[in-house]
Amino acid sequence: MSDIKQIQAPILEEMRLFEKKFKDSLSSNVPLLDKIMHYIIKRKGKQMRPMFVFLSAKLCGKITESSYIAASLIELLHTATLVHDDVVDESNFRRSFFSINALWKNKIAVLVGDFLLSRGLLLAIEKNEFQLLKIVSNAVKEMSEGELLQIEKARKLDVNQTIYFEIIRQKTAALIAACCACGASSTKQNERIVKKLHLFGETVGICFQIKDDLFDYNHNPLIGKPTGIDIREQKMTLPLIYSMNNCSADKKKKIINIIKNHNKDSKKVAQVIAFVKESGGLDYAIKKMEEYHQKALDILEDFPESDVKDALKRMIDFVIRREQ
Question: Do 313 and 300 form a contact (C-beta atoms < 8 A)?
């Protein structure tokens, strides 16, 4: 049995029903929009975020209609952000499929993202799920702030570890935290439990982003992005931040010069990658990822043993062991 199937085992029926409900939420009377929605459904990924919603809900109690609304709301808003991200990044591919903007151009892609966002908002409002809407809307706000903070800091390359963790908490971890908080909230759990699950999701999200950072230094052809792309985009990731904070002033000046002025030169980018590896940047990032991994496991210890708890443990393991 694959990792994903093992994780999904306690929520298999819920995931099947969710897929139908999610597909229904994307229907439109506009033929072009309907065609694009069909394309989005066809190229869906592992659906880790809905899995976090349902596993968190089942960890706290029984899955309810609110849990399905939470999963659909999360997936609609997440898909909207991905469509808009591809426009912003001028990316023609996502998970080996053509992006929406590559097939239908930027204007249509932006409108599709807006449609997905509005569908999520309407779904929550129609069902009076204002607490879920509050959790998810706050996550989207944080994601936007995190991306803008990263862009701002990339211009000056003045990112320290404190700023780095704030950026990834917002731009990556906030949505996974919202998944887990929504799952708990959908079972009408008290605020303390909802906050505990939010912290759990945030911790897993930080693991997820550090793992993503490590891919930038990996030659494995299975990874979802080319080696060195973060350096080319002047993103200050944890391995690079550590290495630059633990080298001579001259070396740091040289590396900053490459990132600012020679980030399109493959040989120069390779020099930065080699510098990070030699400086122990990868080992440090792995160590920090394992610390957050343990923190997430510690949070789960407050819940009784169950197949759902085991599935969440497997989910964390999957996040840090994945190859793409």
Answer: yes
Q: Which residues contact 170 (CB under 8 A, 6 or more apart)?
A: 142, 143, 145, 146, 149
Beta bridge partners, 94, equal 97
Residues 111, 209: Cα–Cα separation, whole Å: 28
Distances in Å between the alpha carbon of 276 and those of 125, 211, 216, 242?
Answer: 48, 15, 11, 8
| Dist. CA 164–CA 205, nearest whole Å | 14
Residue ranges making up the domain that contains 49: 3-321
Contact 282, 298 (CB under 8 A): no
Tell me 11's DSSP state: G
Closest C-alpha to 319, from 182, 163, 203: 203
Helix (H, G, I), strand (E, B) or coil at 86: helix
Cα separation, 274 vs 196, whole angstroms = 40
Cα(259)–Cα(244) distance, rounded to whole angstroms?
A: 12
For the chain, the domain total comes to 1
Q: b or e along 282-300 (b: 16 or more beta carbons within 10 Å of the residue's beta carbon)?
A: bebbbebbeebbebbeebb
Distance CA 289, CA 242 (A): 14
Beta bridge partners of 93: 98
Residue pLDDT, tens place only, 1-31? 457 888 888 899 999 999 888 888 888 888 8
| Coil/strand/helix, residue 94 | strand
Q: How far is CA 120 from CA 79, 137, 179, 207, 299, in A?
A: 10, 10, 14, 27, 30
64-117 residue pLDDT tens: 999 999 999 998 888 888 877 778 777 777 766 788 888 888 888 888 888 888
The residues, any chain, with a CB within 8 Å of residue 148's CB and separated by 6 or more, are none
Q: Please spell the DSSP secondary structure of 196-209, one letter per residue.
A: HHHHHHHHHHHHHH
Q: Is the separation of the CB atoms in 239 and 233 below 8 Å?
A: no
Q: What is the CATH number of the domain that holds 303?
A: 1.10.600.10
